[in-house]
């Protein structure tokens, strides 16, 4: 058991995943694999490695595979046992028996509304929020912000630097440096700034939230997009509570669309013990093909 205050995590995974159609017509985007492991398994593993004891996944219509993935598969286990396939058996069983709980968001009314569904599970504790389609590679980001919460007792938003010409695609944090490297005071937040971005630090799908956020979420109505935005709740929260940003220096992948998933798959292949030896020469060969292709253009 960890001594940290943050022991619970919430993973919203009830979104429609329209940016990944047609793949997500019948399959939850969170279950799409990065090579051979569903995206949501990376996220669950990150939370558990950070000392989280209980995880709540917010699911919805058509998300049954997520629960099945974290459940035992008796037929598969019997089959692998009978064939003596111990290594595969380990892979098939290591995702069962975890402390994962589920609740359903009845309508996909946005991230803010999804988080609101965690209220009873969270009670009065601070908690870790991990977005279902943000994957990190490098230091355990959840662990970093859990440790930071011990020190500051303030809501924390993790951020990653993006190219300045890409800020219009992200939630951007307006920040002021503190005494501590990588830690900033948040002055404001702007969702997808089209003209002038206050910085290039983008919110990267990991937060430590405090239970008072639920009081604000309960008062919010869906905005022009028809969705309740978590950012709106955080902007309101900031009027009475200080917010911190933590700048993550590892890699961050948004796997909620095909491009992000492809980038993640390529880089994670370099870590994969059974794939990397064959894949690295292959990718070098492909890179050469791209070069000649570009020369022809
Ligand atoms: P996204 O912004 O990626 O939204 O949500 P989305 O609806 O899933 O995807 P697109 O835009 O249609 O392609 C960020 C995270 O919040 C969850 C998603 O499952 C994802 O993990 N979410 C989003 C919910 O749980 N409920 C919602 O109503 C919206």
From TrEMBL:
Family: Belongs to the UDPGP type 2 family.
Keywords of this entry: Nucleotidyltransferase, Transferase
One GO process term, biological-process aspect: UDP-alpha-D-glucose metabolic process
UniProt protein name: UTP--glucose-1-phosphate uridylyltransferase
Keyword Nucleus: no
Nucleotidyl transferase domain: residues covered: 8-265
Top EC class, one word: transferase
Annotated Pfam families: NTP_transferase
Protein EC: 2.7.7.9
Record GO terms (molecular function): UTP:glucose-1-phosphate uridylyltransferase activity
Pathways involved: Carbohydrate metabolism; nucleotide-sugar metabolism
InterPro entries: GalU_uridylyltTrfase_bac/arc (IPR005771), NTP_transferase_dom (IPR005835), Nucleotide-diphossugar_trans (IPR029044)
Reactions catalysed according to its record: alpha-D-glucose 1-phosphate + UTP + H(+) = UDP-alpha-D-glucose + diphosphate
């Amino acid at each position: 058991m960890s001594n940290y205050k943050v022991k619970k995590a919430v993973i919203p995974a009830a979104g429609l995943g329209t940016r990944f159609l047609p793949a997500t017509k019948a399959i939850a985007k969170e279950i799409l694999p990065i090579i051979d492991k569903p995206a949501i398994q990376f996220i669950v593993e990150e939370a558990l490695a950070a000392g989280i004891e209980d995880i709540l996944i917010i699911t919805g219509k058509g998300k049954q595979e997520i629960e099945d993935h974290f459940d035992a598969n008796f037929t598969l286990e019997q089959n692998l046992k009978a064939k003596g396939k111990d290594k595969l058996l380990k892979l098939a069983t290591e995702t069962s028996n975890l402390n994962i709980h589920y609740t359903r968001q009845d309508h996909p009314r946005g991230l803010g509304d999804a988080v609101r569904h965690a209220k009873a599970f969270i009670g009065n504790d601070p908690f870790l929020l991990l977005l279902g389609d943000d994957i990190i590679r490098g230091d355990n980001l959840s662990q970093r912000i859990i440790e930071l919460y011990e020190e500051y007792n303030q809501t924390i938003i993790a951020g990653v630097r993006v190219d300045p010409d890409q800020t219009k695609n992200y939630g951007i944090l307006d920040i002021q440096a503190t005494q501590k490297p990588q830690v900033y005071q948040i002055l404001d937040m702007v969702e997808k700034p089209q003209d002038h971005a206050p910085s290039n630090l983008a919110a990267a799908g990991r937060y430590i939230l405090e239970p008072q956020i639920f009081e604000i979420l309960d008062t919010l109505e869906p905005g022009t997009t028809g969705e309740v935005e978590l950012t709106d709740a955080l902007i309101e929260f900031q009027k009475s509570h200080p917010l911190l940003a933590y700048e993550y220096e590892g890699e961050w992948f948004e796997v909620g669309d095909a491009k992000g998933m492809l980038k993640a798959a390529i880089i994670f292949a370099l870590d994969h013990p059974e794939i990397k030896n064959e894949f690295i020469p292959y990718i070098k060969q492909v890179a050469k093909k791209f070069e000649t292709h570009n020369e022809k253009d």
